[in-house]
């Protein structure tokens, strides 16, 4: 393939006219396709239907230690749910608290509590003139929405193939006491599918923050979300590394079963040091009488233990893998060598990250929409929705059927080509 | 019966000696009884076990409007759950948002949001020097815990047989702009079982607050929790009254199915004006991707409609009524005419409120504990745990079995008598 930049104006115009004809054909079909959000497909949801059968009126809803899950009590989770999530999160059971159905909600509450009450005795952030969070980019829009909601200033930190630019992280964290946190998706990151290297995790654990109330928000959302059995990323466990480094309180680690069982009806967990958890329990005691223990029990009875989760995730992978490969194949076949975009082939997670030529992302997403394909809004992967290069596009291949996905990726590729030609022709 | 105050010192001493002997007998049994919290009994929980059967792998988990409850989405609740809770809360469906498993959590979040973001554009409360809440007393300790947690100053407002002292409420709300809210349990109040009169509700709806961001926190926790079919309290619906009075935004109305289905595994709801709900949805959008829709669907499939809830509550009443009557009977039989305590016989709710002679409540609760009976801590029904008269004790008859309840009430009555005698003898 010849790179588009090496084509003459005439060649580009001729190419464009052919592509436009194809685009109009697709557009005429009046399609409605969605690659915008990391939603499991119906086929994946069916994998967990057995969870609806483990609790029924013929079995008791009593925990191993005698707690009746149907009644009040059990503020921080039932023992067996703690064990299940602790094993999945690779931390001791005593370092885990079980929450409700949403780890995002736990993150929100963690920031909200810091705003009104500070962190382990520090000044409440709402009393400070300036609070900042570091945001590895591209990243997860809902993380950024939380910090923006609370008026926290967000600073972009570029992602590298081994995780965030740690030179920049170390400098900002150690020099600026108004830097109170950093958002991380350390494994199969959203959207790039990058897993932080051992060195990156060590450097995180050994940060020397200027702020005593600086915390790493370690959102391990995709900890068991591999695509392959034989090719898997491995992430060093941060909680124990922080402890070893003499920074036991520096990290909050979040996870949930949202993309394991049912999104919205799973269980969430937070792992942290005893000091952090005690503070959090203190707030929980005021906030709620306890989370949904019946649903915790339902998860434990269905998965039994972490091996059950691992086996279950293989079934998810069997559904997800062909979808990822279909998208990657089309990207490689249609865009390889054209030098109008780059992408990373991930080994897990929910997304493929695509980088268009600078200044093209918004136009590509708009073009795709013309033909009935909804993508995540361009810019969404950056704080304030502002991608300084207008380049990154998040592709979410999980929800469409394989047939829809083939058509959707075709539309995407067509849109990339057409917009890139316009860019090279100086029309953008 | 002769009132204790009319007995001579000698008579009191003789009485005391007999009672002490009986108390030692009971104490020797080494009992463990609990009348401290409003927990449903196992028998009541069994009423809802059918809820575990309505969803199974053989039925779909799809809403009437096609929403798949197993996936992300549906931020403010599924349509049929809104209808169910709206009917129960006697408000239009469009004025309801469905939350997670805990209305207390919704109240907490509502206060937390006001702290960091204000209310419909007002100054965030955390930026103000002083924020105050009115607290009808005796009241619900967990309400008071929320406002105390956020450093909000609490002002006691005495309860009357028709609700809070409205002269005091009107004066404080209209004159002091730092008064931002009032906690109300308007029906079968916690702990007195009082239902606000029509006039009280009208006066609430017609308040003229000095603060634009003043809100009534209307915790209608016991809206369908009657004890009798033929004797029921009736509460005027506040949302429509506020609307009629030109104060549509002045009230947040909370409810849940916690004491209808399973505490901790029910669904909670908030009813409010469109303006209030839009603001709340704005925060929810940042806080979560949505609450547990599968559990919402489970409730709808089990109860079907509000009539299903009403029928279900009759079964709860059949279990609760004899317990309430057993306690009331013992109180009447053992304490009637002695003038050492008073109580209200409620027609619903979860509690019986007992007022001892001034300065006796703490001692009575401590005395009962000696014999193995745990009561709600004296003072818990007041802000900061401080009952200015040290008089109020909350009795929660729901959890013990009828047999346990008979023994527990005996211990309680003995404790009241013994402490009252000590009080009259000048020993306290």
Task: Describe what you observe in this structure.
The structure is a homodimer of 428-residue chains. The first copy, chain A, is an alpha/beta fold. The first copy, chain A, folds into 2 domains: 4-44 and 310-424, Aspartate Aminotransferase, domain 1; 70-304, Type I PLP-dependent aspartate aminotransferase-like (Major domain) (Aspartate Aminotransferase, domain 2, 3-Layer(aba) Sandwich). Helix content of chain A is 40%, strand content 14%. In chain A, the strands form 3 sheets. An 8-stranded mixed β-sheet of chain A has the order 2-9-8-7-6-3-4-5, with helices on both faces. In chain A, strands 10-11-13 form a 3-stranded antiparallel β-sheet, with helices on one face. Chain A has a two-stranded parallel ribbon with strand order 1-12. In chain A, helix 11 (306-335) packs across helix 13 (402-424). Chain A is globular. The two termini of chain A are 24 Å apart. Chains A and B meet through helix 4, helix 5, helix 9 and helix 10 of A and helix 4, helix 5, helix 9 and helix 10 of B. Chains A, B: Pfam families: Asp_aminotransf.
